[in-house]
Structure formats: structure tokens, C-alpha cells
Amino acid sequence: MPRRKAADRTGPVKTRSRSGCRECRASRVRCDTKKPVCTRCWEKGLPCSTNLVLKWESEFVSRGMAFGRAGVWSKTRDANSAALQSPSDDMRNWVSVPTIRPWGFINSGVATFDHPEQVDIVLNELHALVPVAGHNASNWSAGAFAAVLNPSLGPSLSLFPELSHLGNGELFDYYLQQVCPRTTASSTVSSPFASIILPFSSSASPTLFKAIQALGACHRSRADPSYGALGLRLKSETLRDLRRRLSNEGSLNCAGDPEVLVIMMMLCLYEIVDKCDQHWTIHLKGAKDLIRLRRQQTAALPESSNAPDPATAFAEHFFAFQDVMGRTACAKEVLFGSDYWKADDKNIDLWMGCSPELVNILSTITDMSRARRQLDSNEARSTFSMRAASLENQLEHLVQEIGDGDDEILASAAEAKRLAAVLYLHCGLHGACPTTPLVVDYVRQILRLVSDLLDREALPSMTWPVFVAAVELDPSRDELWSDPLAEPVSGRATVLRALAAMSESTIANIARTRAVITQVWQARDQDLVKGAMQGEFNDWEKYVVPVSDAMSLA
Predict the structure, then answer these.
(1) How far is CA 546 from CA 38, 364, 472, 480, in A?
(2) How many structural domains does the chain have?
């Protein structure tokens, strides 16, 4: 049948409603658009709903688009529609291209979103370009970095020719020339790893020499991967000898032998330099058990016989300091107490880079932060607040003394650690976050000291203060300050420059430290976009603790 013409039709013309409900449009039937329920939905008992989309003309104009059908069906284009279609040069705002620095990093990846609690050190190394401070980045290469980190030693006379039958004597020389200088906070004094361990090793067994050689090979493998397999073999032989000795002699006898503790210290350092994962904490826990047994044995002796020999005292000092500094990040239970140094000693320890009093305060802050969420009464919370205020006052008035000589760089490093301790106290005990004005001020002070030390090409023992300042950087306020006639100083760029310098000047595992810092930055950036709210955990517990297990920040 032919279609009727419009003139032949009778009755009202049924037009399609543009404001019909969702149910009628889905069924392809005409809706009478009655409110609040149309007739069809009322008769069939259906929910009657409409999709309402608001469109604002100002938004379309700002994007240079036509609003609705305006100008679409016009046969002539007026000036207004032409302006909407093609903005003039006067309306364009050209964004200047920022200066691209070589220490930037890619702040995203699939693993970042799938496993935010896992730290991928290898992936972070691929995404991080961090030239050593003081060198031209454009001319920097992997080979140049290897030359600075690991200069060729060449053939040399071994310090212990009687052990030449063990082989790899150059690794012991490498330990003395390259590893030991990187283990002290002051360049004016000898490291205890040389001044104490070297004389002690002159009468030690070959097992200790293997442990020292393994550490040297592991550190040298950073620039020359061919030493990695050698270091692993030497470590395996050392572990085999140590297990046999513990099995044959027993823990009680081994606890009184300082060589066992020194060997475990070298193995602990090996694991820190290698991957800085859970393996180094195994040696930490084993050393704690041996030290406890030794102290139980010496408790019954006369007081004059209780003083340990220098090697034992330094090994105990080493393990206790590693425990305190590592716990600040992961908030784990204490292994070593505060009885390994004087709690009121204000003299800066040349190996720790700060005073024992400051280390004791840090241990107390970590213990209090662990107990903070278990406070179940007003009296307990009041006592907690008073103790926190007392620690804050102690830190504010702490004066760390250098002792003999005047080492300005060491004094700056100790002051940076004191400032970081105040920052850590407020974040761990008072729930401060990067947007807190006090936190912003302390982060700026710490990174100002770090920047000054970078300019002087000296950055000793600064892993912990750089880490604390980095994880509490405000992602929305990265600019720290503006120097006259210079570009604004970026907080994240300063941190990455410092980490690059420390990768050359210390034996700390900077790759792991940088990976954790980057992970915290990524989490903060994501929450800044999502507008995440603070839960039951404070800022430090939410962002730092989950990704900082088994970190070495000493």
C-alpha cells in the first residue's frame, strides 16, 4: 500500500517525545510524559525515570565548540560562529616547555596500580636517571659512573701475604680502599671498619677474610657485574663455615668469641649492599641471640671483666644502630634496647653521624608510635601526650657536640638528623602530614642543608634525613624556595640529586631507598587525584610503613 501523503492524513499527527521516560524509550513506544509517572508506567507498575543531562553554554564556548544546534543549519556563517569554530591567535595561551632534567622518573606503571604495596627495585632503576652530582649529565654514561664508583685498583701488594693461598687478595685491598671510607660520616677520621676490624682480622681465621672479600666483591659488582658471582660464592663459603662452627662448638661457646659476631656483621652488610631485603635482618636477629648469651655469661664475672673488646663493642654498636634506624621506617618491634650507648651522650659518634642521645630518642619515638593506637583511656592518652611533649622539648634543645676538631660537614649532617627526628616525632606521634605547616617548614630546612652539602660535594651519612624529608614532601607544593637569578628549587629533584650523590659516597643500598621513596610519591600523587580521606592510620603509617619493611637507613 502506498504511503499516505501529509494532506490525506486525518487526526492529530503523533510526534516522538524527546522527553519520554527511560522505560518507554527502551520499549520503543510513545510516552505521554506525565509527571511524576507517565500513564504507561502507572498502568504496568513500572518505575518511571528520565535521563536528565544538563549542558552549559559557557562550557562549550570555552572549548571552542558550538552549543546545541546553533549555527549547524545556518546557510551563512556569521562572525560569532566562525569565532567558535576557529579561535584566533589572540585567544590561544601557549604553555612554555619546562626544562627537562636528567634526574626525572616515570611516575606510573601497571605495577603501581596493581600492587601498590610492593616495591620493584629493578623497575625503578630502569625508570630513574640519576647522574652523580657535580658531573655534566649530558656527558655522563654508565662507563663514566663505573670509573668513579670503582676506579681500577691494578695489581698491588696484599696487606696479608700469608693468606695469598686463599686467592682474590685484591678484594681485601678493595675493602680497605673503597668500602671502609664509605662507612664513616667524617672524611677526617678513619672508619672503625678499618681502625678496629683491620687489626682484629690480623689474627682471625680464614672465614673472616672470606666474609670481608665477599663484601668487597658485592660492592664492586655495582660497577662490574662480573664480581657478582664471585661475591655470591664467597658468601656461600662463609655461611657454610659459620654454620659448621655453630654446630660443632655450640651457641654458648660461639657467643664468647668476638670473631663470630664480626663475621655476622660482614654478612649483614653484604645483604644490605646486595638487595637490602629480609636476609640482612636474619643476621640481625642471630646477632641479638648471641649478644644476649654473651651478656648472660659475663654478668656473673667481676665488673672489670665485663667490658667487651673493641671488636665486640663495635659489632654490638653496629647491630643496635641498624635496628633503631630501620625500625623508624617500618615500625617493627624492638630487637636491641637502649643499653648499647649512653642515653645522655651528646658527643657526635663519627660512624653514626649523630649523638647517641639522638639515637636513643628515635628508639623511644618508634616504641611510642607502635603503642599509640592501643591507648584505651583518657589517662593513658594524657600520659602519652606528656611523654611526646617531653621528647619534643628534648629534641628542640639538643646540642650535639663534635668533640676534638671542627668538622663543619659532620655538624651539618648531625643537625639534619636532629631536624628529621623532630619531623618524625610530629608525623609518628601527632599525626602530622605533608600539608601541615610545621612539616612543610622542617622539610624545607632539611633539604636546604642537603642542598648546601650537595653544592660542597659532600654528603656523608645522610640516608635517613633525606628519606624522612622525601616521604613527607607535599606533592602539591614541590617548589621549596627560589634563589636570586636562578630557577625555583624542586623538592623531588633535590632528593633525587642527593640519592645519586649518596650512591657514590656511601655503601647504603640507595636503589632500595629510592624505590621506596618513589613508591610513596606515587601513592601520594594517586590520592591527590582521587581525594582519598585519612583513615584510622596516621600519614606515616598509611604511606611509609607498608612499603618500608627491612630497610636499612643507618
Answers:
(1) 55, 21, 15, 27
(2) 3
Q: How far is CA 17 from CA 30, 44, 223, in A?
A: 7, 20, 75
Is 274 in the same domain as 170?
Answer: yes
pLDDT at 304 over 60: no
Euclidean distance between CA atoms 277 and 224, whole angstroms:
21
- Closest C-alpha among 456, 364, 367 to residue 410: 456
To which H or E segment does residue 329 belong? helix 310-330
Give the three-class secondary structure for 367: helix
Place of cell 519520554: 20
d(CA 432, CA 542): 12
Q: CATH number of the domain that 55 lies in?
A: 4.10.240.10
- Nearest CA among 551, 474, 481 for reference residue 515: 551
Quote the pLDDT of residue 88.
52
Per-residue pLDDT band at 480 (split at 50, 70, 90):
confident
pLDDT on residue 325: 94
Instruction: Copy the grid coordinates of residue 419.
Output: 631536624
Counts of helices then strands in the chain (DSSP H, E) = 24, 2
Based on the number of CB atoms within 10 Å of its own CB, is 386 exposed (0-12), middle (13-18) or buried (19 or more)? exposed
The pLDDT confidence band at residue 487, using thresholds 50, 70 and 90, is: confident
**C-alpha cell, 295:** 651478656
8 A C-beta contact, residue 333 and residue 370:
yes
* Distance of alpha carbon 134 from the chain centroid: 23
Which residues fall within 8 angstroms of residue 346, CB to CB, at 6 or more apart?
355, 357, 398, 399, 400, 401
Is residue 178 situated within a structural domain? yes
- Pick from 552, 462, 544, 551: which is nearest to 498 by CA? 462
* CA 403-404-406 angle, 5° bins: 90
Distance CA 262, CA 315 (A): 6
When pLDDT is cut at 50, 70 and 90, the band that residue 457 belongs to is: confident
Q: Are residues 232 and 303 in the same domain?
A: yes
Helices (H), 431-486: 437-455, 463-471
**What range defines the domain where residue 334 resides?**
154-340
Is residue 95, in this structure, part of any structural domain at all?
no
The answer to whether residues 187 and 321 belong to one domain is yes
Here the cell at position 336 is 636491641
